[in-house]
């Protein structure tokens, strides 16, 4: 079989027009007649798509409508895992080849609507969608046929008219609820919060923060930081120390309940230094007790026994007015 294959390949190379290149690929092109798919070079030679994404796109484009192209279905068909296939599908969504939306059916069931476009660029420019080919009957010119003249038979008596049943009213279809749009999984993520910075990174503060970060691996062997990682994370640890956090408290916040196994120790430390940053210690003014406004006590009028507010006992306002008039 190998010998026949080599002979056939040699004959095919002999029929290639022009001189053969000294290096690189040589194309032996045999026209397809059945079971083929047209793929554009914009996809096959895409500069930003991975090879896995291009292969999955070609596979999806070759499938008939209604085929299952979920992550689990593709993982069961190919040797790549679900993680690799999911990443490739996200690449195709990013570049417009694949669109996945969640829609609700009239019966309340949620489904995923998957649409594959073979030319996203042409779709954005208003390209026409090629409809499914429908067989159209070809008009054939009638051929005259000579038939013998036969006397017409006598007309038969017309049958009695049969009453037709009344047509049933056509049911009006209920309007389906609008599809529920779910945010795409490739939506841009919010920007990462910056690492805390101290008001003044002194030499002593820098030395204390560096020692604290380098000493983490004694308490958590998983947190092995490189010299570059320590130098990058020093401002965050210095901000904690500047706010009065004890080194033991900082060490406890950075080494407690670590994921197993931690893949990126520097990212874990950076995240905790940023998210768990304590507020600054309050000053003496903030901790001072709240001063209450003095309340004027009640007094009993010596003339009419009516209660009134006054810092000292005496007469109420009405009694004082009467005494003034009498005087």
Question: Would you kindly provide a written description of the structure presented here, covering whatever features stand out?
Answer:
It contains 13 helices and 4 strands. With 327 residues, it is mostly helical. Among the domains are: 2-123, Arc Repressor Mutant, subunit A, CATH 1.10.10; 203-275, no CATH class; 299-327, no CATH class. The chain has a two-stranded antiparallel ribbon. The model is unreliable at 131-151 (pLDDT under 50).
Task: Name its key features.
mainly alpha, 4 strands, 13 helices, Arc Repressor Mutant, subunit A, two-stranded antiparallel ribbon, single chain, two-stranded antiparallel sheet, 327 residues, elongated
Quick overview of this protein structure:
A hairpin with a 5-residue loop joins strand 1 and strand 2.
Share of helical residues: 25-40%
Count of helical regions: 13
Q: Pairing-aware structural class of the strands and helices?
A: mainly alpha
CATH topology of the domain at 2-123: Arc Repressor Mutant, subunit A
Measured between the Cα atoms of the first and last residue, the distance is 141 Å
Overall geometric form: elongated
Q: How do the SSEs run, as a string of H and E?
A: HHHHHEEHHHHHHHEEH
If you average the pLDDT, what whole number results? 78
Main beta sheet: 2 strands, antiparallel
Strand order of the largest sheet: 1-2
The CATH level-2 architecture of the domain at 2-123 is identified as Orthogonal Bundle
What's the multimeric state? single chain
Q: Could you tell me the number of beta strands?
A: 4
What would CATH call the class of the domain at 2-123?
Answer: Mainly Alpha
Low-confidence stretches: 131-151
Beta strand %: 5-15%
Instruction: Please compute the radius of gyration using only Cα atoms.
Output: 43 Å
């Amino acid at each position: 079989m190998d010998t026949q294959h080599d002979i056939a390949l040699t004959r095919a190379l002999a029929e290639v027009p022009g001189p053969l290149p000294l290096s690189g690929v040589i194309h032996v092109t045999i026209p397809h007649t059945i079971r083929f798919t047209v793929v554009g070079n914009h996809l096959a030679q895409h500069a930003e798509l991975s090879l896995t994404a291009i292969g999955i796109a070609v596979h999806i484009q070759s499938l008939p409508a209604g085929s299952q192209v979920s992550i689990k279905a593709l993982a069961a068909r190919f040797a790549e895992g679900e993680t690799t296939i999911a990443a490739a599908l996200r690449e195709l969504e990013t570049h417009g080849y694949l669109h996945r939306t969640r829609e609700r059916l009239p019966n309340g069931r949620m489904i995923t609507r998957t649409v594959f476009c073979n030319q996203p660029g042409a779709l954005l420019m208003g390209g026409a969608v090629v409809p499914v080919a429908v067989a159209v009957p070809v008009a054939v010119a009638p051929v005259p046929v000579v038939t013998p003249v036969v006397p017409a038979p006598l007309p038969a008596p017309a049958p009695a008219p049969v009453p037709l049943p009344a047509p049933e009213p056509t049911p009006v279809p209920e309007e389906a609820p609008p599809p529920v749009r779910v945010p795409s999984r490739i939506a841009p993520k919010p920007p990462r919060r910056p690492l805390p910075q101290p008001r003044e990174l002194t030499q002593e503060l820098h030395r204390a923060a560096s020692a604290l970060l380098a000493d983490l691996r004694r308490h958590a062997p998983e947190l092995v930081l490189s010299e570059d990682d320590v130098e990058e994370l020093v401002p965050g640890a210095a901000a904690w120390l500047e706010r009065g956090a004890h080194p033991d408290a900082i060490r406890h916040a950075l080494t407690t309940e670590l994921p197993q196994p931690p893949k990126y120790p520097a990212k874990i430390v950076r995240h905790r230094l940023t998210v768990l940053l304590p507020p600054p210690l309050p000053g003496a003014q903030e901790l001072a007790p709240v001063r209450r406004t003095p309340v004027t006590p009640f007094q009993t009028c010596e003339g009419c026994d009516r209660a009134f507010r006054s810092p000292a006992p005496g007469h109420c306002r009405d009694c004082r007015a009467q005494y003034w008039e009498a005087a």
